[in-house]
Amino acid sequence: MRRTAAFAGGAMLCAIMTMISPRPAQAQSVWKYLGRIDFIASVYQYSIEGRTDAPPGTFDGTFTSISAGIGFNVPVYHLAHDLSLGINPNIEMAGVPGTAEEVDDRIPLTLSLEVPVYATLKYGTDASWHGESKIGFAAGIGAQYTALTTLDPADISTSYVAPGIMAEVNFRLGSSGLMKLRYSTILGTMRADVNGFDGEDAGDADIRQQAFHLIFNFNS
Prior knowledge:
Layout lengths: L1 H18 L7 H6 L4 E16 L5 E15 L1 E7 L2 E15 L11 E15 L11 E16 L5 E18 L3 E10 L3 E6 L5 E17 L3
Antiparallel strand pairs: 1-2, 1-10, 2-4, 3-4, 4-5, 5-6, 6-7, 7-8, 8-10, 9-10
């Protein structure tokens, strides 16, 4: 199931990016956007339900993690002055002390690596390098890679690739900055294999996740 989801997410993203591949004259301008970094602070919520072959057996829990990371908005095809298609890769590290009791004298902790990559449609402020609009909107679809380790609700680790979407509103800050408010979620429920800390197969779990992001860009 995990391999199927990974293939589907990757194939979907490749198909989208094939449709929005830049014209040769645009290739040089695309690279300059990689020097314009989005600074991201996020709140991730995970819901996990599953069963392990070791205690606690069945488990069901929802927990929240705080993350920080960076991203890049790269318009690759301008449909109009304030309307563009592009790609938006991001990388974040999330973590938070858990709420369960200590497990084998270890403090409960959740850690995750989040790498969402979206093909985007952007209108307004973030659609081009020198957008004149004061406000803008964006929508994206792509794939999200997650590597998750948690002692709460269970002593497990897992990783998966799932299809994901995002929606965003952004505002101009002065003459050279943007503030972006973004919501993202994976589509549906992800069935993933889970491992114990010894690396052995420990069962499977159904995982749902969503996130709210506050993003600043100071070179826009």
